[in-house]
Specification:
Blueprint (H helix, E strand, L loop, with lengths): L1 H25 L4 E3 L10 E5 L3 E6 L5 E4 L8 H27 L10 H37 L10 E3 L1 H36 L3 H13 L3 H7 L1
Antiparallel strand pairs: 1-2, 1-5, 2-3, 3-4
Helix pairs in contact: 1-2, 1-3, 1-4, 2-3, 3-4
Length: 225
Amino acid sequence: MATYALQIAGLVLGGVGMVGTVAVTVMPQWRVSAFIGSNIVVFENLWEGLWMSCMRHANIRMQCKIYDSLLALSPDLQAARGLMCAASVLVFLAFMTAVLGMKCTRCTGDDDKVKGHVLLTAGVIFIITGLVVLIPVSWVANSIIRDFYNPIVDIAQKRELGEALYIGWTTALVLMVGGALFCCASCCHEKSSSYRYSIPSHRTTQKSYHTEKKSPSVYSKSQYV
């Protein structure tokens, strides 16, 4: 029962992490305009993401433009785009692998040992995906903070941390916790299966005892002869 609860909790966290990974990848709020110094034009918001940049004026609909080239991005955003795409693929593979290793799934058979290995694989992939999400989010955040406190950078070019970065940190944590739960569920599977095959059942022990009691030994037969 505890193993099944760990599986359900890990699958839920894995699903939330998968949705969060895709959301962080497509969101344009990686870098947002900073209102500091003379740059206090609060009726104009600028968002910069991995795929597009958006600008919103007061009482005007938001206008977004897709980047014309990958080279138009800064190096940190270029690396973030590649890593987040890889993370999206990995989290999908991890989620599908976890579904195959669930106790209620029959397509992989009823062997608990096989299901334990499948869950362990899913947990490792979830943890790796969390690290892959954490790297670009922290990299972009570090460059934003560095430029913000750099006096050489123009005030108009300074940015603040966007909502996508905070969601990315949360998603990375959720993915790693979900992967850890699947690893724990795999260990519980292995322990239960080893305990099951190492200790004989009470019925089998009694049956063997009665069989040995009923069958006379060779020595006793020789005495009767």
